[in-house]
Protein backbone atom coordinates (compact mmCIF):
# COMPACT_ATOMS: atom_id res chain seq x y z
CA UNK A 1 0.00 0.00 0.00
CA UNK A 2 2.78 2.45 0.97
CA UNK A 3 4.78 1.50 -2.17
CA UNK A 4 1.81 2.42 -4.38
CA UNK A 5 1.48 5.81 -2.66
CA UNK A 6 5.19 6.50 -3.16
CA UNK A 7 5.08 5.63 -6.87
CA UNK A 8 1.98 7.79 -7.38
CA UNK A 9 3.64 10.72 -5.68
CA UNK A 10 6.78 10.29 -7.80
CA UNK A 11 4.70 10.27 -10.99
CA UNK A 12 2.82 13.40 -9.96
CA UNK A 13 5.99 15.42 -9.27
CA UNK A 14 6.74 16.28 -12.96
CA UNK A 15 3.11 17.34 -13.41
CA UNK A 16 3.27 19.60 -10.35
CA UNK A 17 6.59 21.03 -11.51
CA UNK A 18 5.12 21.65 -14.99
CA UNK A 19 2.21 23.71 -13.66
CA UNK A 20 4.50 25.44 -11.17
CA UNK A 21 6.84 26.61 -13.94
CA UNK A 22 4.15 27.47 -16.50
CA UNK A 23 3.00 31.09 -16.68
CA UNK A 24 0.62 32.71 -19.15
CA UNK A 25 1.67 35.93 -20.81
CA UNK A 26 -0.51 39.00 -21.38
CA UNK A 27 -0.67 38.13 -25.07
CA UNK A 28 -2.53 34.92 -24.16
CA UNK A 29 -5.30 36.85 -22.37
CA UNK A 30 -5.58 39.45 -25.14
CA UNK A 31 -6.10 36.67 -27.71
CA UNK A 32 -8.66 34.94 -25.49
CA UNK A 33 -10.53 38.20 -25.02
CA UNK A 34 -10.65 38.65 -28.82
CA UNK A 35 -12.05 35.14 -29.35
CA UNK A 36 -14.67 35.62 -26.63
CA UNK A 37 -15.67 38.88 -28.27
CA UNK A 38 -16.15 37.04 -31.59
CA UNK A 39 -18.43 34.51 -29.89
CA UNK A 40 -20.46 37.34 -28.37
CA UNK A 41 -20.80 39.03 -31.77
CA UNK A 42 -21.95 35.74 -33.29
CA UNK A 43 -25.26 36.12 -31.38
CA UNK A 44 -25.92 39.19 -33.51
CA UNK A 45 -24.14 38.21 -36.72
CA UNK A 46 -24.41 34.43 -37.15
CA UNK A 47 -21.67 34.14 -39.86
CA UNK A 48 -19.14 35.29 -37.22
CA UNK A 49 -19.67 32.01 -35.32
CA UNK A 50 -17.60 29.98 -37.80
CA UNK A 51 -14.81 32.54 -37.64
CA UNK A 52 -14.90 32.38 -33.84
CA UNK A 53 -14.68 28.57 -33.83
CA UNK A 54 -11.79 28.57 -36.29
CA UNK A 55 -9.98 31.25 -34.29
CA UNK A 56 -10.44 29.26 -31.08
CA UNK A 57 -9.05 26.10 -32.69
CA UNK A 58 -6.03 27.94 -34.15
CA UNK A 59 -5.44 29.63 -30.80
CA UNK A 60 -5.50 26.28 -28.97
CA UNK A 61 -3.03 24.72 -31.44
CA UNK A 62 -0.66 27.69 -31.23
CA UNK A 63 -0.72 27.60 -27.40
CA UNK A 64 0.09 23.87 -27.40
CA UNK A 65 2.95 24.46 -29.85
CA UNK A 66 4.27 27.31 -27.70
CA UNK A 67 4.16 25.13 -24.55
CA UNK A 68 5.91 22.27 -26.38
CA UNK A 69 8.70 24.64 -27.48
CA UNK A 70 9.25 25.71 -23.89
CA UNK A 71 8.86 22.35 -22.12
CA UNK A 72 9.67 19.87 -24.88
CA UNK A 73 13.37 19.73 -24.05
CA UNK A 74 15.38 19.09 -20.91
CA UNK A 75 17.77 21.85 -21.93
CA UNK A 76 16.68 25.42 -21.52
CA UNK A 77 18.06 28.50 -19.82
CA UNK A 78 20.93 28.50 -17.35
CA UNK A 79 21.92 31.58 -15.38
CA UNK A 80 24.37 32.56 -12.66
CA UNK A 81 24.75 35.69 -10.55
CA UNK A 82 28.33 36.94 -10.09
CA UNK A 83 28.78 39.13 -7.00
CA UNK A 84 31.85 41.05 -5.82
CA UNK A 85 33.54 39.87 -2.64
CA UNK A 86 32.21 42.96 -0.83
CA UNK A 87 30.26 46.12 -1.58
CA UNK A 88 31.52 49.68 -1.21
CA UNK A 89 29.12 51.81 0.84
CA UNK A 90 27.69 54.83 -0.98
CA UNK A 91 29.19 53.83 -4.34
CA UNK A 92 27.73 52.15 -7.44
CA UNK A 93 28.66 48.45 -7.30
CA UNK A 94 28.28 46.21 -10.34
CA UNK A 95 26.48 42.86 -10.25
CA UNK A 96 26.83 40.51 -13.23
CA UNK A 97 24.37 37.90 -14.48
CA UNK A 98 25.70 35.27 -16.88
CA UNK A 99 22.84 33.72 -18.85
CA UNK A 100 23.00 30.96 -21.46
CA UNK A 101 20.30 30.01 -24.01
CA UNK A 102 20.47 26.27 -24.83
CA UNK A 103 17.27 26.34 -26.91
CA UNK A 104 17.52 26.00 -30.68
CA UNK A 105 15.44 29.17 -31.07
CA UNK A 106 15.85 32.79 -30.09
CA UNK A 107 14.26 33.29 -26.67
CA UNK A 108 13.01 36.37 -24.85
CA UNK A 109 13.98 36.47 -21.17
CA UNK A 110 12.74 38.53 -18.25
CA UNK A 111 15.27 38.26 -15.41
CA UNK A 112 14.10 38.90 -11.86
CA UNK A 113 16.85 39.09 -9.26
CA UNK A 114 15.65 39.18 -5.64
CA UNK A 115 17.54 42.16 -4.23
CA UNK A 116 18.32 42.53 -0.50
CA UNK A 117 15.52 44.06 1.56
CA UNK A 118 17.65 47.15 2.31
CA UNK A 119 16.94 48.46 -1.21
CA UNK A 120 13.15 48.12 -0.80
CA UNK A 121 12.79 47.46 -4.54
CA UNK A 122 10.24 44.81 -5.48
CA UNK A 123 9.76 45.67 -9.16
CA UNK A 124 13.32 45.11 -10.35
CA UNK A 125 13.74 43.15 -13.57
CA UNK A 126 15.93 42.99 -16.70
CA UNK A 127 14.75 42.09 -20.20
CA UNK A 128 16.97 40.57 -22.86
CA UNK A 129 16.51 38.67 -26.15
CA UNK A 130 19.14 35.91 -26.48
CA UNK A 131 19.95 34.12 -29.72
CA UNK A 132 19.95 30.31 -29.95
CA UNK A 133 22.88 28.57 -28.25
CA UNK A 134 24.37 31.85 -27.10
CA UNK A 135 25.76 33.03 -23.78
CA UNK A 136 25.57 36.64 -22.59
CA UNK A 137 26.64 38.70 -19.59
CA UNK A 138 24.26 41.32 -18.23
CA UNK A 139 25.27 43.83 -15.57
CA UNK A 140 23.41 46.26 -13.35
CA UNK A 141 24.47 48.63 -10.58
CA UNK A 142 23.29 48.93 -7.01
CA UNK A 143 24.25 51.59 -4.47
CA UNK A 144 24.06 50.51 -0.82
CA UNK A 145 23.41 53.29 1.67
CA UNK A 146 24.34 51.54 4.92
CA UNK A 147 27.00 49.14 6.13
CA UNK A 148 26.16 45.56 7.03
CA UNK A 149 25.15 42.28 5.43
CA UNK A 150 23.09 42.27 2.23
CA UNK A 151 21.33 38.99 1.45
CA UNK A 152 20.34 38.22 -2.15
CA UNK A 153 17.46 35.83 -2.77
CA UNK A 154 16.75 33.65 -5.80
CA UNK A 155 17.48 34.41 -9.44
CA UNK A 156 14.48 33.76 -11.70
CA UNK A 157 14.33 33.81 -15.50
CA UNK A 158 10.93 33.87 -17.25
CA UNK A 159 11.42 32.67 -20.82
CA UNK A 160 9.10 32.95 -23.80
CA UNK A 161 9.37 32.23 -27.53
CA UNK A 162 8.42 34.51 -30.42
CA UNK A 163 4.81 33.29 -30.06
CA UNK A 164 4.71 34.74 -26.56
CA UNK A 165 1.52 33.10 -25.22
CA UNK A 166 3.26 31.15 -22.43
CA UNK A 167 6.36 31.55 -20.28
CA UNK A 168 8.56 29.04 -18.53
CA UNK A 169 10.15 29.86 -15.21
CA UNK A 170 13.74 28.87 -14.45
CA UNK A 171 15.00 29.41 -10.89
CA UNK A 172 18.65 29.51 -9.83
CA UNK A 173 20.86 30.54 -6.93
CA UNK A 174 20.23 30.01 -3.28
CA UNK A 175 20.47 33.05 -1.01
CA UNK A 176 23.89 34.68 -0.83
CA UNK A 177 25.22 37.28 1.61
CA UNK A 178 27.60 40.12 0.69
CA UNK A 179 29.03 42.46 3.31
CA UNK A 180 29.04 46.21 2.66
CA UNK A 181 32.20 47.93 3.88
CA UNK A 182 33.09 51.63 4.09
CA UNK A 183 33.75 53.16 0.68
CA UNK A 184 36.96 51.40 -0.38
CA UNK A 185 36.35 52.45 -4.00
CA UNK A 186 37.25 56.01 -2.97
CA UNK A 187 40.72 54.76 -2.07
CA UNK A 188 41.50 54.31 -5.78
CA UNK A 189 40.13 57.77 -6.54
CA UNK A 190 42.51 59.46 -4.11
CA UNK A 191 45.39 57.01 -4.49
CA UNK A 192 47.71 59.30 -6.48
CA UNK A 193 47.59 61.98 -3.80
CA UNK A 194 49.67 59.88 -1.45
CA UNK A 195 52.18 58.63 -4.01
CA UNK A 196 53.93 61.95 -4.62
CA UNK A 197 54.16 64.83 -2.23
CA UNK A 198 53.92 67.27 -5.15
CA UNK A 199 50.72 65.83 -6.57
CA UNK A 200 47.88 68.23 -7.21
CA UNK A 201 44.21 67.30 -6.99
CA UNK A 202 41.09 69.35 -7.47
CA UNK A 203 40.62 71.35 -4.28
CA UNK A 204 44.14 70.63 -3.01
CA UNK A 205 46.79 73.35 -3.20
CA UNK A 206 50.49 72.73 -2.98
CA UNK A 207 51.73 74.91 -0.14
CA UNK A 208 55.29 75.94 0.67
CA UNK A 209 56.24 74.86 4.17
CA UNK A 210 57.16 77.75 6.44
CA UNK A 211 57.42 75.91 9.76
CA UNK A 212 60.29 73.97 11.31
CA UNK A 213 61.96 71.29 9.23
CA UNK A 214 63.23 67.86 10.05
CA UNK A 215 65.10 65.97 7.31
CA UNK A 216 67.57 67.59 4.86
CA UNK A 217 66.53 67.49 1.19
CA UNK A 218 68.43 70.15 -0.82
CA UNK A 219 69.95 73.66 -0.88
CA UNK A 220 67.91 76.27 -2.76
CA UNK A 221 67.77 80.01 -3.39
CA UNK A 222 66.34 82.12 -0.58
CA UNK A 223 62.90 83.58 -1.24
CA UNK A 224 60.90 85.91 0.96
CA UNK A 225 59.17 83.96 3.71
CA UNK A 226 61.88 81.33 4.24
CA UNK A 227 63.11 80.88 7.79
CA UNK A 228 66.36 82.81 8.26
CA UNK A 229 67.55 80.09 10.66
CA UNK A 230 67.83 77.77 7.65
CA UNK A 231 70.31 80.01 5.75
CA UNK A 232 73.37 78.03 4.66
CA UNK A 233 76.19 80.57 5.08
CA UNK A 234 78.85 78.49 3.34
CA UNK A 235 76.71 78.06 0.23
CA UNK A 236 75.79 81.76 0.44
CA UNK A 237 79.49 82.74 0.43
CA UNK A 238 80.24 80.51 -2.57
CA UNK A 239 77.26 81.71 -4.66
CA UNK A 240 77.37 85.32 -3.46
CA UNK A 241 73.62 85.18 -2.82
CA UNK A 242 71.44 83.91 0.01
CA UNK A 243 70.96 80.13 0.01
CA UNK A 244 68.83 78.14 2.43
CA UNK A 245 68.61 74.48 3.43
CA UNK A 246 65.35 72.80 2.45
CA UNK A 247 64.08 69.94 4.56
CA UNK A 248 61.51 67.23 4.19
CA UNK A 249 58.73 66.85 6.74
CA UNK A 250 59.26 64.53 9.65
CA UNK A 251 58.00 60.98 8.98
CA UNK A 252 55.86 58.63 11.04
CA UNK A 253 53.70 61.12 12.87
CA UNK A 254 50.48 59.85 14.43
CA UNK A 255 47.11 60.73 12.88
CA UNK A 256 43.88 59.56 14.54
CA UNK A 257 40.42 59.72 12.98
CA UNK A 258 38.02 60.16 15.91
CA UNK A 259 34.39 59.53 14.92
CA UNK A 260 31.43 60.70 16.96
CA UNK A 261 28.77 57.98 16.62
CA UNK A 262 26.15 59.71 18.78
CA UNK A 263 22.65 60.69 17.68
CA UNK A 264 23.79 63.96 16.05
CA UNK A 265 25.57 61.92 13.35
CA UNK A 266 22.44 60.10 12.15
CA UNK A 267 21.25 63.06 10.07
CA UNK A 268 20.80 61.84 6.47
CA UNK A 269 22.23 63.40 3.32
CA UNK A 270 21.41 61.86 -0.08
CA UNK A 271 20.52 58.55 1.56
CA UNK A 272 23.73 58.26 3.61
CA UNK A 273 24.00 59.31 7.26
CA UNK A 274 26.66 61.77 8.42
CA UNK A 275 28.20 58.86 10.34
CA UNK A 276 28.74 56.92 7.12
CA UNK A 277 30.22 59.97 5.40
CA UNK A 278 32.64 60.33 8.32
CA UNK A 279 33.53 56.61 8.18
CA UNK A 280 34.18 56.77 4.42
CA UNK A 281 36.34 59.85 4.88
CA UNK A 282 38.26 58.25 7.77
CA UNK A 283 39.09 55.23 5.59
CA UNK A 284 40.43 57.40 2.76
CA UNK A 285 42.43 59.75 4.99
CA UNK A 286 43.95 56.75 6.80
CA UNK A 287 45.11 55.35 3.46
CA UNK A 288 46.64 58.72 2.49
CA UNK A 289 48.35 58.98 5.90
CA UNK A 290 49.90 55.50 5.61
CA UNK A 291 51.09 56.13 2.05
CA UNK A 292 52.74 59.35 3.17
CA UNK A 293 54.71 57.37 5.77
CA UNK A 294 52.73 58.52 8.81
CA UNK A 295 50.92 56.33 11.35
CA UNK A 296 47.14 56.05 11.01
CA UNK A 297 44.67 55.05 13.72
CA UNK A 298 40.93 55.29 14.33
CA UNK A 299 38.36 54.99 17.09
CA UNK A 300 34.78 56.02 17.75
CA UNK A 301 32.94 57.31 20.79
CA UNK A 302 29.51 58.15 22.15
CA UNK A 303 28.94 57.18 25.81
CA UNK A 304 32.39 55.60 25.80
CA UNK A 305 35.23 55.21 23.27
CA UNK A 306 35.18 51.99 21.21
CA UNK A 307 36.63 50.37 18.05
CA UNK A 308 40.13 51.55 19.00
CA UNK A 309 42.92 50.87 16.48
CA UNK A 310 46.37 52.05 17.59
CA UNK A 311 48.13 54.30 15.07
CA UNK A 312 50.69 52.22 13.16
CA UNK A 313 52.20 52.00 9.67
CA UNK A 314 52.38 48.22 9.28
CA UNK A 315 51.24 46.26 6.23
CA UNK A 316 47.97 45.03 7.76
CA UNK A 317 46.99 48.42 9.23
CA UNK A 318 44.45 49.31 6.53
CA UNK A 319 42.70 45.94 6.97
CA UNK A 320 42.44 46.53 10.72
CA UNK A 321 41.06 50.04 10.16
CA UNK A 322 38.55 48.82 7.59
CA UNK A 323 37.23 46.09 9.89
CA UNK A 324 37.01 48.54 12.79
CA UNK A 325 35.09 51.09 10.70
CA UNK A 326 32.76 48.35 9.42
CA UNK A 327 31.71 47.55 13.01
CA UNK A 328 30.87 51.13 14.04
CA UNK A 329 27.18 51.55 14.85
CA UNK A 330 25.37 54.39 16.56
CA UNK A 331 23.59 53.90 19.87
CA UNK A 332 21.58 57.16 19.51
CA UNK A 333 22.98 58.49 22.78
CA UNK A 334 24.48 61.84 23.74
CA UNK A 335 28.25 61.83 23.13
CA UNK A 336 30.48 62.11 26.20
CA UNK A 337 33.54 64.24 25.37
CA UNK A 338 34.81 63.79 28.93
CA UNK A 339 35.33 60.05 28.39
CA UNK A 340 36.99 60.85 25.06
CA UNK A 341 39.47 63.16 26.75
CA UNK A 342 40.18 60.49 29.40
CA UNK A 343 40.97 57.89 26.72
CA UNK A 344 43.35 60.27 24.95
CA UNK A 345 45.20 60.93 28.20
CA UNK A 346 45.59 57.20 28.84
CA UNK A 347 46.27 55.72 25.40
CA UNK A 348 47.53 58.51 23.12
CA UNK A 349 50.60 59.79 24.97
CA UNK A 350 52.48 61.09 21.90
CA UNK A 351 51.45 64.39 20.32
CA UNK A 352 49.16 63.47 17.41
CA UNK A 353 46.87 64.96 14.82
CA UNK A 354 43.25 64.33 15.85
CA UNK A 355 40.60 64.57 13.13
CA UNK A 356 37.39 64.77 15.18
CA UNK A 357 34.28 64.06 13.06
CA UNK A 358 31.22 65.41 14.83
CA UNK A 359 28.33 67.81 14.28
CA UNK A 360 27.40 70.82 16.40
CA UNK A 361 23.92 72.27 15.88
CA UNK A 362 24.36 75.43 17.95
CA UNK A 363 26.90 77.57 19.74
CA UNK A 364 25.55 76.37 23.10
CA UNK A 365 26.39 72.78 22.15
CA UNK A 366 29.99 73.84 21.47
CA UNK A 367 30.30 75.79 24.71
CA UNK A 368 29.24 72.70 26.70
CA UNK A 369 32.17 70.75 25.26
CA UNK A 370 34.67 73.59 24.80
CA UNK A 371 36.69 72.87 27.94
CA UNK A 372 37.33 69.28 26.77
CA UNK A 373 38.19 70.41 23.25
CA UNK A 374 40.69 72.97 24.57
CA UNK A 375 42.26 70.37 26.83
CA UNK A 376 42.68 67.97 23.88
CA UNK A 377 44.22 70.74 21.79
CA UNK A 378 46.87 71.42 24.44
CA UNK A 379 48.33 67.91 24.15
CA UNK A 380 47.55 67.29 20.48
CA UNK A 381 46.74 69.13 17.27
CA UNK A 382 42.94 68.99 17.14
CA UNK A 383 40.94 69.52 13.95
CA UNK A 384 37.15 69.57 14.48
CA UNK A 385 35.27 68.45 11.36
CA UNK A 386 31.58 69.35 11.29
CA UNK A 387 28.93 69.73 8.62
CA UNK A 388 26.90 72.36 6.81
CA UNK A 389 23.19 71.71 6.49
CA UNK A 390 22.96 71.65 2.70
CA UNK A 391 19.16 71.83 2.67
CA UNK A 392 19.28 75.06 4.70
CA UNK A 393 21.97 76.43 2.38
CA UNK A 394 19.66 75.86 -0.61
CA UNK A 395 16.75 77.45 1.23
CA UNK A 396 18.90 80.42 2.20
CA UNK A 397 19.80 81.14 -1.43
CA UNK A 398 16.23 80.95 -2.76
CA UNK A 399 14.22 84.07 -3.47
CA UNK A 400 11.40 84.72 -1.00
CA UNK A 401 8.08 86.12 -2.23
CA UNK A 402 5.63 85.32 0.59
CA UNK A 403 5.75 86.02 4.32
CA UNK A 404 6.18 82.30 5.07
CA UNK A 405 9.09 82.05 2.63
CA UNK A 406 10.72 85.14 4.16
CA UNK A 407 10.36 83.60 7.61
CA UNK A 408 11.85 80.26 6.44
CA UNK A 409 14.74 82.01 4.71
CA UNK A 410 15.51 84.10 7.80
CA UNK A 411 15.63 80.98 10.00
CA UNK A 412 17.87 79.24 7.46
CA UNK A 413 20.27 82.21 7.40
CA UNK A 414 20.34 82.20 11.20
CA UNK A 415 21.31 78.52 11.41
CA UNK A 416 23.89 78.95 8.65
CA UNK A 417 25.42 81.92 10.49
CA UNK A 418 25.52 79.88 13.71
CA UNK A 419 27.76 77.32 11.97
CA UNK A 420 30.21 80.09 11.06
CA UNK A 421 30.11 81.38 14.64
CA UNK A 422 30.97 77.87 15.88
CA UNK A 423 34.03 77.76 13.60
CA UNK A 424 35.08 81.26 14.73
CA UNK A 425 34.67 80.32 18.40
CA UNK A 426 36.86 77.24 18.03
CA UNK A 427 39.48 79.14 16.01
CA UNK A 428 39.62 81.76 18.78
CA UNK A 429 41.10 79.11 21.09
CA UNK A 430 43.53 77.79 18.45
CA UNK A 431 41.39 74.80 17.49
CA UNK A 432 41.46 74.17 13.73
CA UNK A 433 38.14 73.48 12.00
CA UNK A 434 36.70 72.10 8.78
CA UNK A 435 33.16 73.27 8.02
CA UNK A 436 32.09 71.36 4.93
CA UNK A 437 29.21 69.73 3.11
CA UNK A 438 29.03 65.92 3.32
CA UNK A 439 29.80 65.54 -0.39
CA UNK A 440 33.05 67.56 -0.04
CA UNK A 441 34.10 66.00 3.27
CA UNK A 442 36.84 63.69 1.98
CA UNK A 443 38.62 66.18 -0.27
CA UNK A 444 38.45 68.94 2.38
CA UNK A 445 39.88 66.60 5.03
CA UNK A 446 42.76 65.54 2.80
CA UNK A 447 43.40 69.18 1.95
CA UNK A 448 43.60 70.07 5.64
CA UNK A 449 45.96 67.19 6.39
CA UNK A 450 48.30 68.21 3.55
CA UNK A 451 48.17 71.84 4.69
CA UNK A 452 49.15 70.87 8.24
CA UNK A 453 51.98 68.69 6.94
CA UNK A 454 53.20 71.47 4.61
CA UNK A 455 53.24 74.05 7.42
CA UNK A 456 54.91 71.66 9.85
CA UNK A 457 52.29 72.32 12.53
CA UNK A 458 52.28 68.80 13.92
Structural notes for this entry:
The protein has 458 residues and is of the alpha/beta class. The protein has 4 domains: 17-71; 77-181, Immunoglobulins (Immunoglobulin-like, Sandwich), CATH 2.60.40; 185-206 and 250-455, von Willebrand factor, type A domain (Rossmann fold), CATH 3.40.50; 215-248, no CATH class. Helices cover 40% and strands 27% of the residues. The strands form 6 sheets. It has a 6-stranded mixed sheet with strand order 18-17-14-19-20-21, with helices on both faces. It has a 5-stranded antiparallel sheet with strand order 1-10-9-5-6. Helix 7 (274-291) packs parallel to helix 13 (441-455) and helix 11 (390-397) packs across helix 12 (403-428). It is elongated and about 115 Å long. Residues 196-213 have low confidence and may be disordered.
Main features:
5-stranded antiparallel β-sheet; 4 domains; 458 residues; alpha/beta; Immunoglobulin-like; 6-stranded mixed β-sheet; elongated; single chain; Rossmann fold
